[in-house]
Amino acid sequence: MDFKTIKDIPHYLFDNIDEYRAFGNEQEVKPSWRVGDEGDWVYTDDGYICQILKKSNVKHPGYKDGRTMVRTVCGSFIVEQKTHKILGEDGVVENIYTFSGNYNATYSRAKDRKLNNREFLFARYVACGEDSIKAYKKAYPAAVNEDYIKQKSSFLLKKEEIRSMVKEEIKKILQDEGVTPEWIIAKYRDIADLSDRDTDKLRSLESLSKIAGLFDTEKKQEQLTVFQGFTPKQLEALQGGKETNVLAHAEKDEE
Questions:
Q1: Which residues pair with 58 in a beta bridge?
Q2: Rounded-to-integer distance, Cα 121 and Cα 125, Å
Q3: Which of 94, 160, 182, 185 is deepest in the core (most CB within 10 A)?
Q4: Segment 36-57 mean pLDDT
Q5: C-alpha angle with apex 198: 192 to 199, nearest 5 degrees?
Q6: In this structure, is the dihedral angle defined by the CA atoms of residues 130, 132, 136 and 139, taken in order, positive or negative?
């Protein structure tokens, strides 16, 4: 879904009929924008749904009776001009008074933008700690169908662009609080060095080892586990019940 605010009123471009209904719309959708009247919701040539904001007759060279023009959030189009097509995939236009065929004023949802405005808001809410359902409701306050909201929020979380955006936003939030990767590693190291409890030391060492990639089981690599300083009981547990004085253990996957 995308939208454009005109005179403080949001006008929407829906991806499909399910999304259209999920936002509480009950009005029938006309099968084609070419047969719709002003105020009607219509299908675009590629199956999206938008509303005809204005329909009028305009003068046109070579046509005595002029031509029929419709205006939508995707731009203005001549109904009789078969080469004019409304494509929802191209998104909304900056200037709705521009006739189709001249897309210099458009910003393509497919090419120029990875996230539309509402998806961007959804990602930011998730990054700030909201669960996906609440984040979707905040980003899309007009949505009313609970099943659709659950399905759509789950879908958005799987989008690579959303996941990347959430990671970037979390990173910014942490940096604002002074929490950098270097700070986290230093804290783990301090616990490993200074803690009196072996369990705290072990957890810190495990975390540092994962950060360093020592426990990456998907790639063949050397692994090093240092046991020096562990209690006899911890060593016994790690060795399957056999007491041992092993100070270090190294293993390497064979090619």
A1: 67
A2: 6
A3: 185
A4: 95
A5: 95
A6: positive
DSSP 255: -
Question: What is the arithmetic mean of pLDDT over 227-246?
Answer: 49
Burial class (CB in 10 A: 0-12, 13-18, 19+), 64: exposed
Give bridge partners of residue 93 from the DSSP assignment.
106
Q: Which residues contact 115 (CB under 8 A, 6 or more apart)?
A: 123, 161, 162, 165
**Other CB atoms within 10 A of residue 60 CB:** 15
What's the confidence (pLDDT) of residue 48?
A: 96
Give pLDDT, residue 213: 62
CA dist 114 and 109 (Å) reads: 7
The CB-side HSE value for 237 (13 A sphere, CA atoms) comes to 5
Kindly report, residue by residue over 144-194, the tens digit of the pLDDT. 888 889 988 888 888 888 888 888 777 776 677 676 777 777 877 788 788
Lowest mean pLDDT among 8-12, 100-104, 111-115, 177-181: 100-104
Backbone angles phi, psi at 4, to 5 degrees: -140, 130
CA distance 97 to 249: 72
Q: What is the pTM of this model?
A: 0.47
- CB-CB contact of 101 with 93 (8 Å): no
What is the 8-class DSSP label of residue 93? Answer: B
- Give phi and psi for 240, each to the nearest 5: 70, 30
User: pLDDT (tens digit, 9 = 90+) per residue, 187-232?
Assistant: 777 887 887 887 877 777 777 677 666 555 444 344 334 444 445 5
